[in-house]
Amino acid sequence: MNIDFYAAFAIGLMGAGHCIGMCGGVAAALTLGMPGQERNNRWFYLLAYNIGRLFSYSIAGAIIGGAFAGMAAYSGYSSALISLRLFAAFMMIGLALYLGQWWQGITKIERLGQFIWKYISPTAKSFLPLKSPLSALPFGILWGWLPCGLVYSTLSWAAVSGSAIGGASVMLAFGLGTLPAMLLIGSVAEHAKQLLKNLYFKRASALLLLAYGVHTGYIAIKQML
């Protein structure tokens, strides 16, 4: 596992408060309309939903990683990937500013995905209310394409992974980082959820991501010189 894998995991973990805001309502809705006896199995629904979501992230990472690796091979492999890594560093800096609520420019990138999402969303919603944990799996696969600044920022790291497998592993790591927060949805861990949404926690996490983004950009610039 390379540094990008751990960086992607950290983005998912530190952006947990954003995940609760973006997908928390969706995850909580999994149990709405269920028969009383099924609500006791809500963990199976949440797990299946999140497995589907991580599957979509991995597929997106494989597509982006493979596509950019192929393009870089035709344009001067090392120099192209170094330029992409510099772009990824800027994306991480932008994400850090977004998570810290200092700059909202990442939301403009989220809007780019709305065109596709308006076609996916009706199909995803057609699964509700869920009848079984198995039906939560395709629901999660579809909901994994929800436009999200965190996802798009991490995809920039998948782009510099150098391969489809590398891109998939980066996005899987990101998904695993978001998993603890998403599994808290609907549970009794209210204190943990309040911490993840706390502004001070968000800004502390944002500063760590900002430092890593600046460091990565510095290394990329040195390699270009």
Automatic annotation (TrEMBL):
Transmembrane stretches in the record are 6-33, 54-74, 80-99, 134-152, 164-188, 200-221
Tell me the domain of life: Bacteria
Quick one: which gene encodes this? CV3063
What is the originating organism of this protein?
Photobacterium profundum (strain SS9)
Task: Give the record's keywords alphabetically.
Answer: Membrane, Transmembrane, Transmembrane helix
| Claim: Protease is one of the keywords in the record | no
What's the protein called, per UniProt?
Urease accessory protein UreH-like transmembrane domain-containing protein
Q: Which residues form the Urease accessory protein UreH-like transmembrane domain?
A: 7-214
